[in-house]
Amino acid sequence: MMGINLFQILNGLTFAALIFIVASGFTLIFGLLRIVNLAHGALYLVGGLAGYSAAKASGSFVVGALAAMVLVAALGAVLDRGLLSFVRGVELRQVLLTLGVAFILNDISLVIWGGDTFSVPVPEVLRGAMWIGGVMYPKYRIFVLVLGLLVFAALWLLLNKTRLGALIRAGVDDPEMVEAMGINIRRVFLGTFMLGAALAGLGGVVGGAFLTLYPSADAEILVFSLAVVIIGGRGSLVGAALGALLVGLLNAIGQVMFPELAYFVIFGPMALLLAFRPLGLFGRAA
Amino acid sequence: MVLLVLAVLPAVLPSYQVSVVTQVLIFSVLAMSIDILAGFAGRTSLGHGAIFGVSSYVAIYWSSTLGGDIWIGIALGILAATALAGVFAALAIRTSGVYFLLLTLALGMIVWGVCLRWTAVTGGENGLRGVGRPAFIADHASFYYAVLIIVAPLTWLMWRLVHSPFGLTLRGIRDSESRMRSLGYNVPLHLFVAFVLSGFFAGVAGGLYVLFNNFVSPSTVQLSQSVSALLMAITGGVGTLLGSFVGAAAIIVLENAVSAYTARWPSVLGIAFVLIMIFAPEGVVGRARLLLARRRSRSPKPNHSGG
Question: Do B98 and A271 make contact, defined as CB atoms within 8 angstroms?
Answer without folding.
Answer: no
